[in-house]
Amino acid sequence: MSDLPDLPVTFRPGHTRVILLTAAVVIFLVITGIALLLDLGPGERLTFVVTAALIFWVLAQLARVRVVADESGVTVVNIASRRRLAWAEIVQVNLRPGDPWVFLNLSDGTSLPALGIQPGIARQRAIADAQALRVLAEARSAARETQDQG
User: Fold this and answer.
1) Fewer CB in a 10 Å sphere around the end CB: N or C, the chain?
2) What are the distances in angstroms from CA 80 to CA 10, 50, 58, 84, 126?
3) How far is it, in rounded angstroms, from Cα 101 to Cα 94?
4) CA–CA separation, 41 vs 38, rounded Å?
5) Which helix H or strand E contains 73, and what residues bound it?
6) Which residues are 112's β-sheet partners?
7) How many Å apart are CA 8 and CA 36, to the nearest integer?
8) Do the Cβ atoms of 27 and 59 come closer than 8 Å?
9) Is the pTM of this model over 0.85?
10) What CA–CA distance (Å, rounded) separates 114 from 101?
11) 11, 137 in Cβ contact below 8 A?
C-alpha cells in the first residue's frame, strides 16, 4: 500500500480555480473602476459595485469545488452543496472518457458528481487524481472487509 496518497489529501482543479479567481478579481476591479469613472449618483455607483461583488461571489463559488479525502471518509464540495461520505458509502470512483468530472457510485444506488476532479483544462492531472481516489476507496473497502471477517 505504499502507493497510497498520504491523508488528508485535497483534489481540486487547480488551473480552472486560478482562471476563475483571476477573472473574478479583474471583473470586480473593472466594473468598480467604471462606476467610479462615470458621472453617476451614489445609488447608481452602489448598484455597479454590488453587481461586481455578485459576479465575484458566483465565480468564487465555481472555484471552491474540491474533494477532500481523510482517514474517515470523503468530503465532496460542489458549487452549491457539500456532502460528507464515509468510505463504506463509496462503491466505485468513475471518470469515463467524455465525463465532465468524476462520479462516485454510492452504496444507496445513487451517483454523486465530484466536481473537484474534472478533466477540462488539466486532463492528465484529473486522471491521476481519479486513480488516486479510486485506489484509496478500494484500499478502504479491502480494509473494511478484513475487519468485518476478523
Assistant:
1) C
2) 18, 21, 10, 14, 21
3) 9
4) 9
5) strand 73-77
6) 104
7) 45
8) yes
9) no
10) 6
11) no
Cell matching residue 43: 445609488
Question: How is residue 113 written as a grid cell?
Answer: 458528481
State the number of CA atoms in the 13 A half-sphere of 60 facing the CB. 10
Kind and range of the H or E element at 94?
strand 90-94
CA distances from 56 to 63, 82, 108 (A): 10, 20, 36
Asked whether 70 and 86 are in contact (CB, 8 A), the reply is: no
Report the run of H or E that residue 106 belongs to, with start and end.
strand 102-106
C-alpha cell at 8: 488528508
Sheet of strand 82-86: strand arrangement: 9-11, 66-70, 73-77, 82-86
Residue linked to cell 481519479: 130
